[in-house]
Amino acid sequence: MATAKKAAQPKSTAAKASAKPAAAPKTSAKASAKAAPAAAKRTPNAAFMKPMTPSAELAAIVGAKPLPRTEVTKKVWEYIKKNKLQDATNKRMINADAKLKAVLKKPQVSMFEMTKIISSHLS
């Protein structure tokens, strides 16, 4: 009796596979719109790449020669990390030492406020 039940059930996987239509890859307008700009290479903004002269206070940290804003920010972060001036509990806050306090005018600032203050020291 057990063999009669087994014979009645088809075990053909080919029949099951052909019953389901092949899934077409889904593409949406958003996905294709995102893919197109990714292929094009970004060009840097000329305003950020223009060499700016740092003030005397800022020159003590980054050097006196004219640098683009991006490089000034990188050098200030190198100075902060080298001297361990980032707050231990809240990493967004920067604790100023003597050189940095001359630029920032405060004992502690947020990293976002820091970039704003530094831009005022560039001409």
Topology:
Elements: H1 2-8, H2 13-19, H3 29-39, H4 46-49, H5 56-62, H6 69-82, E1 93-95, H7 98-104, E2 108-110, H8 111-119
Antiparallel strand pairs: 1-2
Helix pairs in contact: 5-7
Question: Could you characterize the architecture of this molecule?
Answer:
The mean pLDDT is 81. The chain has a two-stranded antiparallel sheet. It has 123 residues and is mainly alpha-helical. The protein contains 8 helices and 2 strands, in the order H-H-H-H-H-H-E-H-E-H. It has a domain at 47-119: MDM2, CATH 1.10.245. The protein starts with a helix and ends with a helix. Helix 5 crosses helix 7. Residues 1-48 are annotated as: Disordered.
Features:
SWIB_domain, SWIB_MDM2_dom_sf, SWIB/MDM2 domain protein, SWIB_MDM2_domain, MDM2, mainly alpha, two-stranded antiparallel sheet, 123 residues
The number of helical segments is 8
- Return residue spans where pLDDT drops below 50 for at least 5 consecutive residues: none
Radius of gyration equals: 31 Å
CATH fold annotation of the domain at 47-119: MDM2
Q: Which shape, going by the Cα principal axes?
A: flat
User: Could you name the CATH homologous superfamily of the domain at 47-119?
Assistant: SWIB/MDM2 domain
Organism: Tepidimonas aquatica
Region (Disordered): 1-48
InterPro entries: SWIB_domain (IPR019835), SWIB_MDM2_dom_sf (IPR036885), SWIB_MDM2_domain (IPR003121)
Biased composition (Low complexity): 1-47
